[in-house]
Amino acid sequence: MTQRPSPDVISEYKEFVAWDAPTRWFHWINALAVLALIATGLVILNDDALGLSAGGKILLKSIHASFGYVMAINLLWRFIWAFYGDRYTGWRGILPGGSGYLTSLRAYVLSFLSGEPQQFVGHNPLARIGISVLFLLLLIQLTTGLVIAGTDLFWPPFGHWFAQWVAAPGVDPTSVQPGASDLIDKASYQAMRAFRAPFVQVHEFAFYALAVVITLHIIAVVLTELHEGGSITSAMFTGRKILTRKPPDAP
């Protein structure tokens, strides 16, 4: 007896439009910015062991913060675009939850374990959890990083407020610069550093968590590409996926 093909199998490869141009640009700009932040962040964490001078530390923090601004602007743009994006790039295609999500998640996991995984045009239900965690960690890094840039470098949006806090009596806050100890009130500076401390701790913890999540993200993409196909990697360049099974999230 001839075995009948699964009704979910497409007789020929079929191309689906998955990622729009704004989403693809966000992905690669974010990837480059985050890699630069991780690299410079690791050097900052080991600045004493590397023997960096005071001026070198300030320069390195300036470079790190500059990449941080790129990441922040790019991430905020992505959040805005999620309100206007289509079914795959909008919030409903990113965040886990909604009607039938748990059923969809269970079906995807079972299909993956069975060796005949479902193929999705957008993010599969498991990936939506990972993307949400990644976005949350990036948002934490954005928020705490802006505070740290304000306390270390007196850069916007909070830098002027911190400069006013630590400026010595009679000193114009706009003249306060990193390392200019003669322009700073020592007691106020110590109070500011105490305020800053928990932001630094959260920033450092999220830094390590982000490195782990990014590593898991790359592993998941590779495993999914090998196990499911669907040209997942190339789709982030072309915007299109080529699938062999009928996707549950097809229009």
Supply the key terms.
Fumarate Reductase Cytochrome B subunit; 251 residues; two-stranded antiparallel ribbon; disordered N terminus; elongated; 7 helices; 2 strands; single chain; mainly alpha
Can you walk me through this structure?
With 251 residues, the protein is mainly α. The protein has a single domain (9-245), classed as Fumarate Reductase Cytochrome B subunit. The chain is built from seven helices and two strands, in the order βαααααααβ. The chain has a two-stranded antiparallel ribbon with strand order 1-2. The protein is elongated and about 70 Å long.
In brief, what are we looking at here?
61% of the residues lie in helices and 6% in strands.
- Which CATH class is shown? Mainly Alpha
Note the beta-strand portion: 5-15%
Number of domains: 1
CATH topology: Fumarate Reductase Cytochrome B subunit
What is the strand arrangement across the widest sheet? 1-2
Largest sheet: 2 strands, antiparallel
**Rg on CA atoms, Å:** 23 Å
Structural class: mainly alpha
CATH architecture: Up-down Bundle
Tell me the overall shape.
elongated
N-to-C span: 35 Å
Percent of residues in helices comes to 55-70%
SSE order, one letter for each helix or strand: EHHHHHHHE
Q: Mean pLDDT across all residues, rounded? A: 90
InterPro entries: Cyt_b561_bac/Ni-Hgenase (IPR011577), Di-haem_cyt_TM (IPR016174), Hydrogenase_cytochrome (IPR051542), Ni-dep_Hydgase_cyt-B (IPR000516)
Pfam families: Ni_hydr_CYTB
Keywords: Cell membrane, Electron transport, Heme, Iron, Membrane, Metal-binding, Transmembrane, Transmembrane helix, Transport
Membrane topology: Multi-pass membrane protein
